[in-house]
Amino acid sequence: MNGSVTSRRRFIVAAITLSGLAGTSIGTSFLGPSRAWAQSEDGSDGDSAAMVRMARLLYPHDAIADDVYLDVLNLAMSMTASDGSFAALLDVAIDALNASQSADFVDLDEASQIAVLQSVESQPFFAAIQMNVGVTFYYHPAVWALLGYEGPSFDKGGYLHRGSGDIDWLPEGK
Amino acid sequence: MMAARFALDDTTVMVVIGSGAGGGTLANELAQKGIDVVCLEAGSRLTLADVENNPPLMNARMGWNDKRIGPPVWLCKTVGGTTMRWSGITPRFQEHELKARSTYGQLEDSSLIDWPLTLEELAPYYDKAEDKMGVTGTHGIPPSFENNNYKVLKAGGEKIGYKEITSTRTGINSAARDGRPGCLQIGFCNSGCKIGAKWSTLYTEVPKAETTDHFELRTGAMVVKINHDASGKVTGVVYKDAAGNTHEQKARAVAVAGNVVETTRLLLNSASSKFPDGLGNSTGNLGRHYTRHVMSIITAIMPGPVHFNRGTRQSGLILDEQYHKPKRGFAGGYFIETMGMDPGGALPFVGGWGRSTASFMERYSHMAGIFITGEDPSQASNKITLHPTERDQHGLPVPVIEYAMHPNSDAMQKHSIMKSTELYESLGAEDVRASEGIFVGCHNMGAARMSANPDDGVTNRWGQTHDIPNLFVSDGGVFTTSAAANPTLTIVALAIRQADHIAERMGRREL
Asked: Is residue B10 classed exposed, middle or buried when 0-12, 13-18 and 19+ CB atoms within 10 A define those classes?
């Protein structure tokens, strides 16, 4: 890929060590091993913060730490590492989010940040990022407990005898 | 197990391309009759040990994710094909659906025709297919387990007046049968069934064929071209093995079962001076009349926990809307089926972003889900073609899929969403969301449709191409029209029927 596509991706390499999730092997338990993103020279912390902020505003769960959103971005990129397609989308997004107002995206208040996202909502990059971030986010085991999702079940014998038919609030049927 | 081995220059073998619902079934049926079959599968052969409760990983392991242009399709490149991924629900087609043109009239901008066969002819093969697949509620097989998502569907369906609600018609063992265990309600049906309770040709048709001396499976075999002689009969297929080496397997006859998109691409890529527009395409119908079904997923936040991850995605269905009732404002009908999902799988159908979507997702444990599948009228303009310049890793033109929903499909989708919403709201649903518009192509049909008149389609009533007597199509591409039902049962029934026909023709030395 063109070098500029990955030029801003240094923060994602940092994400692997910053996430603090290594002990629970978040990145590897569900999506396969994460690949370290190619390190390059001109990444900036501002880009990292903007993308994490964007990911959080797309799927805002107050109980989920920034580290998880960062890990999600990393996973989405590692899954398209061969063609750099997600990284390229993030580059477009950073430019678009910073271009539309006087201050940098990260320095705006939340209402203004949401307004910026809404202003680019119809652009093709947005839908692609939204879907990638969303699916990767909700497949992330760090999110499951909040949702009440119970994860893989084969190793527990499935749900046949563990609540598959335990619903108790339905009206009495015929 | 004593699988046979056939020489590349053996001109007596039948080559079947693909090992899924169509190809795997056809190959086994032929082998059981003593006909020598070489089955070429582009993917690799997994075992149950390779199956994990991990959708992204399993998509990477068995999905066919090569480059295509157009709305996404849900193919598999693995032994078993899409029977590894399917959800398992198996309604039959109805009599009127095989007479779509006669029943619905010529809907504007549609290319409907009637099937060149009747339900009466198909019925005995449905019986055989249901027995083979272990369909619940047939052949004395008990109904499927009523999991929570089904119980919600049933309670809501009864509340709004539906009469035909059933936890049968699923090709997932409700109890041990045919050497496979009963379902444990593991979930993750679309990532391969970890215990083999769900019917897949990987562990049914393929190993059964291997117990004969008449079947050889070659994996990692990507077919790139079908060859023919000066008379126009096919003579063999060219494929690349996993190492990239090219071989030609000679053949007495060839059947293609590449889940419609890859079938069309192969037949188009096999163009020659004799057949400049591709094999089977002398009337310009190959790739056209492509249908995908009217689909939607409706998710609802219910007043109490549902935990719809606990168990099979598709555990039952409502039949009441399957009929042709034009008063609803559209032709044909649809099924309302359960749909359980993990959070990552649910998100695309919940849709949206921001606080409202996040709040919806945080109530995941209370989520119930419906999958709609309904009749999609054929349109000549919905088609699969080859890209003029884009090439895949084999140097072959990539497929281009052009698909737009017919107004009849728009009207049906709206109706199905309205009824599903009504069903959930009758039980006090707090919030309901529905996916609208074009759905992922998990049911591909029609691109090599059967027709009585060669001017109208690609294949005859046996799935034999009108142009080439020893070339067959054995996947959903042969469906003349889409009907409403999920296609796998009908693909299997037609493959069994096709095997009978091929064996008979071979017996008469006509093939």
From this structure: middle
Strand locations in B302-350 (E): 317-318, 334-338
Mark yes or no for CB contact A159/B60 under 8 Å. Answer: no
pLDDT for the residue numbered A21 = 30
Tens digit of pLDDT for each residue in B134-164?
999 999 999 999 999 999 999 999 999 999 9
- Residue B57 and residue A173: Cβ atoms within 8 Å? no
**Mean pLDDT over each residue of chain A, to the nearest integer:** 77
Q: Do A163 and B183 touch (CB under 8 A)?
A: no
User: Among positive and negative, which fits the CA dihedral B370, B374, B380, B386?
Assistant: positive
Task: Give the distance from residue A3's alpha carbon to the nearest chain B alpha carbon, in angstroms.
Answer: 23
User: Which residue of A162, A167, A172, A174 is the best one to mutate when testing the B interface, meaning the one whose CB has the most B CBs within 10 A?
Assistant: A167
A43: closest CA of chain B, how far (Å): 27
Do B158 and A149 count as a contact with CB atoms less than 8 A apart?
A: no
Q: How far apart are CA A158 and CA B142, in angstroms?
A: 20
CA of B145 vs chain A CAs: smallest distance (Å)? 8
H, E, C per residue of chain A: CCHHHHCCCHHHHHHHHHCCCHHHCHHHHCCCCCCCCCCCCCCCHHHHHHHHHHHHHHCCCCCCCHHHHHHHHHHHHHHCCCCCHHHHHHHHHHHHHHHCCCCCHHHCCHHHHHHHHHHCCCCHHHHHHHHHHHHHHHCCHHHHHHHCCCCCCHHHCCCCCCCCCCCCCCCCCC
B317 and B166 in contact (C-beta within 8 Å)?
yes
Confidence of residue B96 (pLDDT cuts 50, 70, 90): very high
The conformation of residue B84, written as its DSSP 8-state character, comes to G
Q: At what angle do helices A45-58 and A124-138 cross, to 10 degrees?
A: 80
- Residue ranges of A 43-82 with Cβ closer than 8 A to chain B: 57-61, 79
CA A122 to chain centroid: 20
- What's the gap in Å between the CA of A158 and the closest CA on chain B? 4
Mean pLDDT of A51-64: 97
Token digits of residue A37: 């993103």
| Assigned token pair, B273 | 């001076």
In B, which residues are within 8 Å of A58 by CB distance? 353-354
Residues of B in Cβ contact (< 8 Å) with A173 = 154-155, 158
Q: Are strands B222-228 and B317-318 parallel, antiparallel or unpaired?
A: unpaired
| DSSP secondary structure, B398-442, as one string | EEEEE----HHHHHHHHHHHHHHHHHHHTTT-SEEEE--SPPPBS
Place of tokens 């990767």: A136
Q: What is the DSSP letter of B336?
A: E
What predicted TM-score, i.e. pTM, was given to this entire model? 0.93
Q: Is B296 helix (H, G, I), strand (E, B) or coil?
A: strand
